[in-house]
Amino acid sequence: MPQGWKMELASIPDPQDKWAATVRTAQLAEALGYDSIWVYDHVHNVPVPAHEAVFECWSTVAALAASTSRIRLGQMVSCASYRNAALVAKITSTIDVISGGRLDFGIGAGWYDHEYQSYGYEFMAAKDRIRMMRETVEVVRNMWSEPDTTYDGRFVQVRGAQCDPKPVQDLPPVWIGGGGEQLTLRVVARHADRSNFGGSPAEWAHKRDVLRSHCADIGRDPDEITMTWSPEVHIRETEAEIVEGGSRSFWGEEFDSWRAGNLVGTPEQVSEQLAEYVALGCGGIVPWCSDYPSETTLRLLATEVIPNFRT
Question: Disulfide engineering: 38 pairs with which of 74, 96, 229, 244, CB 3.0-4.6 Å?
Answer without folding.
Answer: 74
